[in-house]
Amino acid sequence: MVQHLASVSSDNSNYALGRLRELLRAGELGADGRLPTERALAEMLNVGRRAVRRALEVLEAEGLVWRRQGSGTFVGERPDRWHDQLDDLVAGTDFMEIMEVRLRIEPQLAQLAAMRAKPADIARMRDLAAKILDSEDADARELWDGALHRQIAQSAGNRLFLSIFDVVNRVRQDEAWQAIRERARISANTVSVSLAQHMGIIDAIEARDPARAGEAMRQHLLMLQERLIRATSLEAGQGDALSEAS
Question: CB atoms < 10 A from the CB of 95, how many?
């Protein structure tokens, strides 16, 4: 009986390892750089968490994923030690600094993507844009939005640019950032506008038009920056009014 259970556990681990390899290869896991939790993966694959944990250990040894205690599992090889300082860097960064960096690098990434993106990359971009529109809550919208922008960055084919992008993208996972983003969207009702802008970026990439792709990305980020400024300014004004009233 013990041998039978061991065999079943081994089969489950092998099955989990095979399926995770397939999903990673197809780009269906970790689109934003982070994999789902072990519990979520176990439910997805209909295996035990132990089988998932063993499979992830193998994938980590192969350099396909890396794990950080308390933070989760991420796609790719473990970053260098400089990335260990990212939490402090993220904590000390405000949204205006983030937008300044995004405006400097993401238009260039869109330009490179227009020159290098494969048809499968573009199809993935369109799928991710559709998922943003279909999302019903802020967390899901932010997740798929981040996944779309990372797909564009990845399609640019420049690993150094992608590493810089991932540093910036880490801030998007912060709860305070997500709250500001959602207030900006709700106050301006910009979901449909953002979708149109996303599709314009993708269309330019598919048309192999770097100049148009870069400008479309720049206009998209400028709109977001304006919405964020308005949302935070409105919140600050409300706070001042409450202070005076009290």
Answer: 20
DSSP-derived secondary structure for 103-114: HHHHHHHHHHHH
Per-residue pLDDT of the chain (246 residues; tens, 9 = 90+): 434 434 444 468 889 999 998 888 877 776 667 888 899 899 999 999 999 999 999 888 888 888 877 778 888 776 655 555 555 665 556 678 888 989 999 999 999 999 999 999 999 999 999 988 888 777 778 778 888 999 999 999 998 899 888 888 776 666 666 666 666 665 445 677 888 999 999 999 999 999 999 999 999 999 988 888 887 775 554 444 434 444
All residues at 6 or more sequence positions from 53 whose CB lies less than 8 Å from its CB, including other chains: 38
Check: pTM over 0.70? Answer yes or no: no
Helix (H, G, I), strand (E, B) or coil at 68: strand
Total length of the chain: 246
- Of 48, 75, 102, the residue at which a domain comes to its end is 75
Mark whether 160 and 222 lie in a shared domain. Answer: yes
* Nearest alpha carbon to residue 138 among 165, 175, 94, 167: 175
Torsion of CA 181, 66, 167, 228, to 10 degrees: 0
Q: Tokens 């099955």 appear where?
A: 15
Rounded distance between C-alpha atoms, residue 230 and residue 59, angstroms: 44
Residues 6+ apart with CB under 8 A from 201: 110, 152, 213, 216, 217, 220
Q: How far apart are CA 153 and CA 106, in angstroms?
A: 7
Of 104, 115, 184, the C-alpha closest to 145 is 184
Number of domains in the chain: 2
**32: which DSSP letter?**
T
Same domain, 141 and 234: yes
